[in-house]
Automatic annotation (TrEMBL):
The keyword Cytoplasm applies. It comes from Halalkalibacillus sediminis. Transmembrane segments: none annotated. Participates in chromosomal partition during cell division. May act via the formation of a condensin-like complex containing Smc and ScpA that pull DNA away from mid-cell into both cell halves. Homodimer. Homodimerization may be required to stabilize the binding of ScpA to the Smc head domains. Component of a cohesin-like complex composed of ScpA, ScpB and the Smc homodimer, in which ScpA and ScpB bind to the head domain of Smc. The presence of the three proteins is required for the association of the complex with DNA. GO terms for biological process: cell division; chromosome separation; DNA replication. The keyword Magnesium does not apply. GO terms for cellular component: cytoplasm. This is Segregation and condensation protein B. It comes from the Bacteria.
Amino acid sequence: MELKQLKGVLEGLLFVSGDEGLSISQMKKILDVDKESVHLILEELRYEYEDSQRGLAILEQKEIYFLTTKPEHSLYLEKMKETNLSSRLSQAALETLSIIAYRQPITRVEIEDIRGVKCEGPIQTLVSRMLIEEGGRKETSGRPILYQTTKEFLTFFGLSSLQDLPPLPDEDVNQAEEEADLFFSEME
């Protein structure tokens, strides 16, 4: 494969690798070239990205390479983020996501029992944004799909694991217990 083709392939690999990036050894293995060739391709890409009319750059951190946007364009990226109102999640989607995050894996029917309304739309939205995914099937009649959060969910909310989720307030549980105690005391 020619150098020009290898640059295109490596550019795509760096884009797809996202936040994980790629090491030299991974690039070497995937491209099936020697270490010097990987360095040459990276330098060619870096040289092309240094052009002021390009919006991307190659970032190296601890021998891992990432494809990223140029820091000098951050103002425009922030403006895009502020004006992209359609990227916000609806209240229904946020409620559904919260239920899945705390009760996963969970079926759509179980989510609807908790919310008290249908939630097909919010689930489709969350799947399309890769915040939730199918986590298998429940061993019951109909074998409904179980939903769970994704790695992107953790990244989006800046969590390292699900244990970092804030604890649920005890108020609802305590209030329900008090109401149940009042109900049963009246029956005695």
